[in-house]
Write a structure and sequence with these properties.
single chain; 421 residues; Phosphorylase Kinase, domain 1; 12 helices
């Protein structure tokens, strides 16, 4: 199949043999820049172009994402602003793509009066779609998500960039390792003195973006942190912040806890409350501050290697323990068998000797050297003062050369320590 690049085409899919789009009569482009084969439409950019899934024939047909900028109204302020943002997105990706959880820039070029930005394809599901299929996020899910996302946001801010549009749709969980990836830097804006002094264009998503960004067009690290808090709120409640913003404005953040499906831990509630402060001065000012509070108040949290969501940690630990309980039972059975086997063997030897055994108790001060073992007389050699609760039985051969101590409890304790039973 070959995809028509006309952003207004209602049915862009065409057979590979066609040279003209069968829907809109636009000439079909088999390869963009003689390298990228457009396969299908991924999303529509609202009149400014489309985003496509494509193949990079220079990389063994590896999948990539191509964003197209094709504004309808040329020469207008909107077209100039869109072009500026598109160019800035390419620059941001070039700077930030070195981070493993941000898509890398592959190419940026103009062809047939349209701008194209080619970036790495992230195979996974965004958190908005994940919410629709999953529906329930627990306390620990949000903690894990924050620990995964905050270092990315910190990296972005350290490079002088504000994302300005953090929301569930712009966060993808990779299929390969479960790690979260931050995408769509089209609304990002360089953090400079000029941005902080002058009013700018209102860019972002209502409900997720803070008041200073929507009202004044200003963006700060704390602005992204508000969006992160609104994203967590959406996942916890299933309620879109946009819906609440449309009905209540920013007053919803004052009583955000009323929308929760279940109570959160006090620690996470405090962090969420500080993320969702309406006034920027009362909010977290950096990702580092949030990370410190998370690690301080949740010292038991250790990010998983693959950062996958764990639904029921307690149940998992119980299942894990039950896998090894058979080892404990097996060792106990083996110990009992060994003991009775040795006891029976000793009894037979005793009968063969046909000798009367006499045991004399040594006095407390006597040394072990005074005790003598003979063929017809057995004496106490030593006394076990410790480990009474750990030793199950003691057996000695008639010739005094073999002694067996069954210490089942000790073995079991070692296994418990090693496997966490």
């Amino acid at each position: 199949m070959i995809c028509c690049l006309n952003p207004d085409c209602s049915n862009p899919q065409n057979s590979q043999s066609h040279k003209i789009c069968q829907t809109c009569n636009t000439p079909l482009v088999s390869l963009l820049r003689n390298r990228f084969r457009v396969i299908r439409v991924l999303s529509d950019e609202g009149g400014f172009g489309r985003t496509y899934i494509s193949e990079d024939i220079d990389k063994l047909n590896e999948l990539c994402v191509i964003k197209q900028l094709a504004p309808k109204f040329r020469g207008t302020w909107s077209q100039k602003k869109a072009t500026q943002l598109f160019s800035e997105e390419a620059k941001r990706l070039q700077e930030l793509g070195q981070h493993p959880q941000i898509p890398t820039l592959i190419a940026y070029f103009e062809q047939d009066n349209c701008l194209y930005l080619v970036q790495q394809f992230i195979d996974g599901q965004n958190l908005f779609n994940e919410l629709k299929s999953r529906r329930i996020y627990q306390d620990w899910d949000i903690q894990s998500m924050l620990l995964d996302l905050l270092p990315i946001i910190k990296f972005v801010h350290q490079n002088g960039v504000i994302h300005r549009d953090i929301k569930p749709e712009n966060i993808i969980r990779r299929k390969t390792d479960g790690r979260l990836t931050l995408i769509d830097f089209g609304s990002s804006k360089q953090l400079t003195a000029q941005v902080q002094r002058k009013n700018g264009t209102s860019i972002g998503s209502h409900g997720y973006s803070p008041i200073e960004q929507i009202r004044d067009g200003k963006a700060y690290p704390a602005s992204d942190l508000f969006s992160l808090g609104a994203t967590c709120f959406h996942l916890l409640t299933g309620i879109s912040p946009f819906q609440l913003w449309m009905e209540y404005g920013y007053t919803w953040v004052e009583n955000w806890q009323h929308y929760l499906r279940f109570p959160l831990s006090l620690e996470l509630t405090e962090i969420m409350d500080k993320l969702l402060q309406k006034e920027i001065k009362n909010r977290y000012q950096s990702a580092d501050e949030v990370i410190r509070d998370l690690m301080k108040k949740h010292t038991h949290i250790l990010p998983a290697a693959n950062h996958k969501i764990i639904k029921t940690p307690v149940k998992n630990s119980q299942t894990y323990s039950s896998k090894y309980i058979w080892i404990r039972n097996l060792i106990s059975m083996l110990g009992i068998i060994v003991f009775f086997a040795l006891a029976e063997s000793g009894y037979r030897e005793f009968r063969k000797l046909k000798t009367n055994f006499s045991f004399s108790l040594s006095q407390p001060g006597n040394s072990p050297s005074k005790s003598v073992i003979s063929e017809k007389s057995w004496s106490l050699v030593n006394t076990f003062d410790g480990h009474k609760s750990k030793v199950l039985s003691v057996a000695m051969s008639p010739n005094g050369k073999m002694i067996v101590v069954v210490v089942i409890v000790i073995i079991v304790n070692v296994i418990i320590l090693n496997y966490g039973m």
